[in-house]
Design a protein that fits this description.
The protein is mainly α. Helices cover about 50% and strands about 10% of the residues.
Length: about 120
């Protein structure tokens, strides 16, 4: 059995702030329960291969592959090739930036509170 590579975002560009277009893409990617369940499989920072993800989701491999593609395109997952295998990891920095952006949307501006609008 091949040992999993480290699951870290080293060598990936840092994500501190995301654009509104990126926020929309992430929200769209998170809008499916199967994709949320896939991300939940990464509760520990351990890379996973498609076969492991398929086994835990109980979905067809083609369906899981499509969900993985959507999560990668939204920058929520990254993939590392290791010979014939592809290991997937969560981009936690992207999830944190998305969470901060949502928090910013939820904050009422002080100006509006003071003026009564």
């Amino acid at each position: 059995m091949t040992q999993a590579p480290p699951c870290c975002e080293e060598n990936l560009p840092p994500v501190l702030v995301i654009t509104v277009d990126e926020m929309a893409a992430i929200a769209k990617a998170l809008a499916h329960p199967a994709r949320i369940r896939i991300l939940e499989q990464f509760d520990e920072c351990v890379p996973r291969v498609v076969g492991d993800i398929v086994a835990d989701c109980r979905l067809a491999q083609s369906t899981v592959s499509e969900h993985l593609r959507i999560l990668r395109e939204a920058n929520l997952l990254f993939a590392r090739k290791d010979g014939p295998r592809t290991w997937y990891c969560v981009r936690r920095s992207v999830l944190h930036a998305f969470s901060r952006a949502l928090d910013d949307l939820a904050i009422e501006p002080v100006l509006h509170q003071a003026s009564g609008h």
